[in-house]
Every structure is written in structure tokens, then in C-alpha cells.
Amino acid sequence: MTLLQNEASDVVMTPDNIRTRKLPVAYNIGIAVAALAIAAAIVFPTGIGNWVLVVVLGVVFYLIGLQVIAGRIEGPRAARNRMWQAAIYCACVLAILPLASVVWTLVSKGVSRLDGDFFGSSMNNIGARDPNGGAYHAIIGTLEQVGIAALMAVPLGVLGAIYLVEYGKGKFAGTVRFFVDVMTGIPSIVAGLFVLSFWVLIVSPWFNNGTPQFSGFAASLALTVLMLPTIVRSTEEMLRLVPGPLREGAYALGVPKWKTIVKVVLPTALPGIVTGVMLAIARAAGETAPVLLVAGGAAAINFDPFSGGQQSLSLFVYQQAADASRYAPARAWTAALTLVALVLVLTIAAKLLARRSSLR
Amino acid sequence: MAKRIEASNVSSYYGNFKAIDGISMTVEPKTITALIGPSGCGKSTFLRSINRMHEVLPNARIEGRLTIDDQNIYDPDVDVTAVRRLIGMVFQRPNPFPTMSIYENVVAGLKLNGVKKKSVLDDAAEQSLKSANLWNEVKDRLNRPGAGLSGGQQQRLCIARTIAVEPQVVLMDEPCSALDPISTLAIEDLMFKLKDRFTIIIVTHNMQQAARVSDKTGFFSIDKTGDPGRLIEYDDTQKIFSNPSEKKTEDYITGRFG
């Protein structure tokens, strides 16, 4: 008995015949149509659901039908393969559906206020009955807050990861790694509260004649607290992936350790590090709670991140969505679309930059 | 130019594990010395001790004296990067820097150690690639990634990179074990050529290779797994392969053991 004889009785493959029958495409489509029809016949007359349930049931029936019928024609092994392949495709579609739905909703609802006024003006002196007003101040706020946060978090995070991978040995490194892990799970509102109590209430009065004040910089601090652990962990993983022989190759040329890290290890890990940094930035750009707590939000344009309340795009979305004005929801949608587009553009730009510097 | 290496009573440890025990040998300038022996007998450990690559691994340490022209490389006031600039190393698997072009790979040692002048770098790149018998194959694509070359070419690129920094001694840790016979031959030819300028020590599992290329051969062995490796015999290659003084050496090179 050879392994070939494990197949179904009427698709026996022998050492002299390794061909087998294949399920015709027409059968495949037929099973799909039949499955949907049966699902519809069950769902609609009984009135237990709408077309979504039909599709879900249809997919289940299709997978079962595929297994049964393909098993008859191709043999059980080929049928299992076919069924799981179909199941994986379905799972993939299922995973993409919410994303596509989000993008579609954003674009379709956000496009109505996609005008010059939205990007050119703030909400200063805009009342409930004014249809115009825009997010200029919020865009400035997001860019400044996230920019400053990135300026603080990226060098700190990357240097911390370099310490953990290249230098850190023993208890101290273990402690650092543990607290970085703990910090990863900090809820953003806690980071906001920390900065509120520490920076806004204690430190900022020193610079403002004794009165505490909101500022975009305080929001940056909170975002830094949130970004730091993500950047440290992702950079650490990427640096660990750099093969040891590369470092040894550089050492063997008489290159000092720090230069090996800067010129060999970091460039090799750069694309991965950039991805991690962009994930952190994208997360920070979407944070609302800490900005609300420590920057306060504002209706007017405030270029100075170090003094006075500042708006951010996500906070703008939150406030407009809760606003009673009938013109507010459109502004919220457009601001959300702007935020997503902003993060997308930044990510693509960073990836292109990283690719250009690593490959020719 | 090329320097004499002298090891006296060198033992290496990984933590508490003693990898080699009391190795003493003298390597004359401008010779090729081959280190042979079964796997795990400490040849590579000894080789890595010579340019202090051993200590890159955690908990690794050395006892004994290793001198290069009478300077002990393990003296506390010795700068480890200076040692490695004097004693270059080629590894078992080719390890060109993946983010660098062929040209950048060759001059990496110079550039990362502060040489900036373009003319010097260009010169060094051309000379080293020519010495490594690689110039004709890559001269038209110096700006392509080094990782895009074939295995044999990559290994010659690594040799070019090593000799571009003008070391006194070149250590080779099984440089041909990942290569096909033709690339191996190219690298053996290269070793003969480099012998005029450098002292070469090569670890190899290929006894024909040791017999072909080396002037002197050292045979390492262990009694059983877990024991430290010892230098059993160290003599002229001719003598080792025709009339070894130790029974163990004879058994190993005739294939009766190991």
C-alpha cells in the first residue's frame, strides 16, 4: 500500500496514474448559488433576519457544500484543502469589510465640508447658526502637538531600545524592560491625568506668574508618555532582528561599538523602526482624552504650543460630534477624514524615505 | 608589515565552561597557518581569541598571553579596536552589510574609522577589490547592493573589506565552507597572493585545503565532549600530513577518527 491509495475510492491514484479529477469551476459557482438560495429560503420566510444573515449563512452552507461535493469528486484531502482555502479567503474579506466601511463612511460624509473655508478658518466667532467655520486651528494643534511629542519620544525611545539591546545586561535592563511593558498598557486618560497634575498644576505656574495654564506642550508631554513604550518595544524587536554576524563584521574591521550601532545596526533595522514610530505617531494623533485634559481645546487659532489652550483634530471631532448645531456633524466628519488622511500621508512619506535610504 | 603572533598558555572560557586549554604556538609573519580538528575542538574559539572577538560573546574570557610582535593584546591598557584594526577577520558565512553598496562595503572599515577623502577611498576600493580577485566582476556595478552578489563573490567582497583597512594579520574562520569548489579555488589563490603582505591564519575542516595552502598546520582535538580543546600537534604542514609525530594526528588525517 502506498500513500497514494489513501484517496477516495473512485479517484484512486496509483503509482502508474498520478492524475486526479478536479472540481469544475461551474460546480463551484453552482454550490455558491445554491448555498445562497437555501440561506435566503430559510431566512426570509421565517423573518429572522435580513440580507446580512443570508450572506453569513450562505457562506457557511457554501463551505459545507464545497467540502461534501469536492470530496465526492476530488477525494477528501483535496476537498479539505479547497474548503480551508475558501474559508481563509472569507476571513480575509471579513477582516477588510469594517475597514472599507469606515473609509467609505468617512469619505462620503466628510466630503461635504471639504472646502477652502474648512482648511482656512477656525471656529472663532462661529455660532450655532453659522454653516461655515473650520478646523485650521485644530490641524495646527495636531501637527504641533504630535510633532513636538515625536521630537521627544523618538530619540528617547530609539536610544532606550539601543540601550536594551546593545548594552543592557543584568537587573537594571530587566527592570527597564518590565516598566516599558507596563507603560504600554497605560490608558491614555491616565497619561493625561499625570501630565495634568504634574505639568499643568505644578510646573506651568512657574512660567505663568503663578497661574496654572493649559498648553499644547502639555498635550505633547502626555502623547510622549503614550508613544514612548510603543517606540521602545518595536525598535527593540527590530534591533534584535539584526544578525549578530553583521555586528561582528564591523567589529572585526576595528570599528568602535557606537559607530557599529549608528552606521551598521540602525540602518539595517531602519525600515522596521520607521514602521513602529509611525504606528506610535498614528496612535498619538488619534488621542482625544489627554488633549482634552491638558490642552483644553480652543475655538481660535493658537500657534504657540507653550501658552494657552490649543485644539487638536481628534478633540475637534469629539466636540463637533457632541455639538447641538446642525452644521457641526459635517465638520466632525470632515475633520475625521482629515485626520486619517494626515496619518496616511505621514506614514507613506516615512516609508518612502526609509526605503530610499536603505535600497538603491 | 606582517607581524608575528605568539600565544603562550592561552585558555578561553565561556562562563564556567573551559573551551580551550593551554594553547601555545608561534605564527611567523607572511605565512599561512591552518588550524584543523574535529568540530567543537576550539579552533574557532582560539582564532577569535587572537583579535579579541571572543569577548563579544557574553561571559567570555581569556587566560594566558597573546602577543603581536611582543605586545600583549590582552593588557588592560590595550584598545580593543586597535587590536582589531591590526588583526582582521573573515567569517564562515559571508556577511556584507545589507544597507551598503559594493563600494561602500569595501571602504566601510576606512569610512567608519574616519577616512573621508574620496580619492583615498576610491583607491583603496579598487586596490582591495583587485587583490580579492573581484574587481573585474563588479567594477561596472559598484553602486549595487553588496548582498546581491553570489555567495563566493560575497565572501571575496568580505575579504576585500578586510584587507582594505591594511591589517597585519588576517584571520579566516572556515571561509570556504559555504562555497562551491570553484569559489573555494578562487579564495585559495587569493590566499597565496595575500601571503606576500599579510600573516594568515585559517580554520578549515577541509584537510586537502589545509595541505594545499598552508605552511604550518596546527591540529586541535578534544578527548570527549565537554572537555576543553587542546593543541595536539603544531608543525610544518608537510610533516603533519606525511609523518606526524602524534598518533592522534595521524588517526585524524587518515580518517580513522573524528
TrEMBL record, chain A:
GO cellular component, one term: plasma membrane
Domain ABC transmembrane type-1 per the UniProt entry, residue ranges: 139-354
Function as written in the Swiss-Prot or TrEMBL entry: Part of the binding-protein-dependent transport system for phosphate; probably responsible for the translocation of the substrate across the membrane.
Protein name, as recorded: Phosphate transport system permease protein PstA
GO biological process, one term: phosphate ion transmembrane transport
Bilayer-spanning residue ranges: 25-45, 51-71, 83-107, 146-166, 178-202, 214-232, 264-285, 332-354
Pfam family, one: BPD_transp_1
Family listed: Belongs to the binding-protein-dependent transport system permease family. CysTW subfamily.
Record flagged with keyword Membrane: yes
UniProt topology in membrane: Multi-pass membrane protein
Keywords noted in UniProt: Cell membrane, Membrane, Phosphate transport, Transmembrane, Transmembrane helix, Transport
InterPro entries noted in UniProt: MetI-like, MetI-like_sf, Phosphate_PstA, Phosphate_transprt_permease
Record carries keyword Transmembrane helix: yes
Location(s) in or outside the cell: Cell membrane
Single annotated GO MF: phosphate transmembrane transporter activity
TrEMBL record, chain B:
Keywords attached to this entry: ATP-binding, Nucleotide-binding, Translocase, Transport
GO biological process per UniProt: phosphate ion transmembrane transport
A Pfam family: ABC_tran
The organism's place on the tree of life at top rank: Bacteria
Domain (ABC transporter) ranges: 5-247
Protein name: Phosphate transport system ATP-binding protein
One Gene Ontology cellular component: membrane
This protein's record includes keyword Secreted: no
Gene Ontology MF term list: ATP binding; ATP hydrolysis activity; phosphate transmembrane transporter activity
